[in-house]
Amino acid sequence: MESRSEYQKKKRRKKKLRFRKWVIVVFLIFFLSIFAVSINQVYQWLKDNKEIENISDDVVKDTKVKEKEDTKNTENVNPPEDLSNDYWDYIKMNLLEVDFNELLRKNPDTVGWIEVKGTNINYPIVQTTDNSYYLNHAFDGSKNEAGWVFMDYRNDSVNFNQNTIIYAHSRLTGSMFGSLKNILESSWYTNKNNHIIRLSTPTENTMWQVFSVYTIPKESYYITPNFNSNEAYQEFLNTMKSRSEVEFSAEVNTNDKILTLSTCKDNFGNRVVMHAKLIKKELR
Prior knowledge:
- This protein is of the alpha+beta class.
- It folds into two domains: about 1-60; about 65-284, Sortase, Chain: A (Beta Barrel).
- It is built from five helices and eleven strands, in the order αββαβαββββαββαββ.
- The strands form two sheets. Strands 2, 4, 5, 6, 7, 8, 9, 10 and 11 form a nine-stranded mixed sheet that branches. The protein has a two-stranded antiparallel sheet with strand order 1-3.
- A hairpin with a 5-residue loop joins strand 4 and strand 5 (about 120-125).
């Protein structure tokens, strides 16, 4: 006959077994939940990529983009005295002209088109009343975590501010500003033909010469659109120039207007940043 002590031991063992089983079940449910969420996220990421690719293809297909030769109305902006500066080679390049009729019909938020040499960046730019909407909406207004290329809501897309800022996500596929990280690779910066940004708007075609590229933790200083004095602006320009991880020939002063491109480098808040100054423009 089983003793009372033996009975109690068996009872405790059964309780331990039941507890272990419940722990295993809980952990299994937990990990299966994580797996299911991860699968869903991967699926959504792939879906967003496919949709953004289709939207981009449609935009390019339906938009007339052409090289524009200089005319008597073309203006060189703030030329340097040094005739050996790369500026004098860049202004010989053609401007870019875009037909915005179809783009504006599809999305009235359209304010420009940007092309960055040596990257995949060749997109229409949008602008709305905040800097959040186009973080998770595509050009056609559909919900999409890939977002779109957009101008800071504080900027004047017609006259340009001292600092005009353009953002987009850095997609692993290279879409949006996913290829902006290329500017920190020698294959990009050793080719001087890459040091140009062309931007067309419904009122003006412009060209910008790159003077600084770098990575930096998240901050707000480099995305300041306007300055209260020339001294403050020159200090800003000096800081942006000194941050560059690549030495460029372009010099900047308070007579310049600049363009800033910004995107995430990683999941820790670091940014990839490019600055360029306006060197040529033509009213349309």
